[in-house]
Design goal:
Elements: H1 7-17, H2 23-31, E1 37-44, E2 47-57, E3 60-68, H3 77-91, E4 96-98, H4 106-114
Parallel strand pairs: 3-4
Antiparallel strand pairs: 1-2, 2-3
Length: 129
Amino acid sequence: MDERPTDGWFAAWFAVHGREGLAEPEKALLGRVRGPSAHVRAIAGSAVVAVGRAVADTGWAGVFGMATLPEARGRGAAGVVLAALAQWAHARGAERMYLQVERDNTPALRLYQRAGFTEACRYHYRTLD
């Protein structure tokens, strides 16, 4: 767990999200986050296989940037990351956590449901044709 994302954290996140060409803007964006932050890496052998981050503010912690490498899915790595983020948040006085997940991401929905998250609302994006 680190206060700022490491190169290994970013490598795993980019490997899942396929945005390697946007590394510098993404790093700059996260560098502007002022609230207490945690960046967690799950490591198998010497490889980072899952990552996530949380930001704490006024009794809440937001979970962001969850990603698990395809070859590590279904092995508990994301659960370990989420649990570490929850422990970190609790230690900083955050009694509640929130996150957003795409509704067709069934594995993530199962993970979050097992962890006790429930749906609060839905949202969608609109585009101009």
